[in-house]
Amino acid sequence: MPRPQAAAARPGELVGRARLLSALLLSGSGDRWQHTRAVARRAREAVPAVTPTGGQRAGEVLVAAAWLHDIGYAAPLVDHGFHPVDGAQHLRATGWPEEVVALVAHHSGARFTAAERGLRHLLDGYDAELGHRTPVAQALVWADQTTGPAGELVGVEERTAEVLRRHGPDSAQARCAAERVPALLRDAAATEARLAAPAARADRSPAGAHEGVWYLTA
C-alpha cells in the first residue's frame, strides 16, 4: 500500500507545520519542550552548513526535523517505547516528507541505542542514507547534542556525559557509548567545519541571511 505523502509545501509551510505539531504534543512537557525549542534554534543556526549543497529545502527539512525529533516521547504516540521510532512512525502515518521521517527515526545515533535494546529491526524501514549519512543529519546531531535537557547550551562531550549519568552505567546508552559517542562527535565536528567554510560564513552574514517563517523558531 503506498505511503501517504504530503503535497509540496510552500516555503515556510513545512517548518510552520512542524512547530505547530511539536507544540501540540510537547508544550506541556516542561524541560522536554524547552529542549525542543532550543534544538530548533540551534538547527536554525546550522542552516548555513546545509544550504550550500542542499538549498533552502535542506534548511527547511533540518529545522522541521529539529522541532519534531522528540515527539515520540509524547504519551499519545508511544508504541514501542523507543522515541525515535515512535515519532517517525506517527510522521509517516500522517504523510510527512520522508526526509523528515528518516531524520527523526535515526537522530543522534538512534541506531546504536536500538541495537543495544534489541530494536534494530524497527529502524530497517527508515532510510539510513537520509537519516544519518547526510550533512542535514549531521547538523541535526549538532543541534541536539549541543543542547542540554532543559534547553541550555552545552558542548557535545558534556551532553553525552550527562546522558550517561542520567541513564546509568547499565543502560543501553552506556553499553553503546564506545560507538555512539565518537559518531556524534564526528557529526558535530563535520557541521562545525561546514559552518566555518566561506560559503556558510557568507550565508550567515546579514546580506545572505535567510528570511521567512521557516527560519523563525522561537
Provide structural commentary.
The chain is mainly α and 218 residues long. It has a single domain, classed as Hypothetical protein af1432 (Orthogonal Bundle). Helix content is 63%, strand content 0%. α1 packs antiparallel against α2 and α2 (31-68) crosses α10 (177-196). The longest helix has 38 residues, at 31-68.
Number of helices: 11
When the domains are counted, the total is 1
Q: Identify the quaternary structure here.
A: single chain
Strand count = 0
Write the layout of secondary structure elements.
Layout: H1 13-26, H2 31-68, H3 83-93, H4 98-106, H5 110-116, H6 128-132, H7 135-145, H8 156-167, H9 172-175, H10 177-196, H11 198-203
Give keywords.
Hypothetical protein af1432, disordered N terminus, 218 residues
Short description:
With 218 residues, the protein is mainly α. The protein is 63% helix and 0% strand.
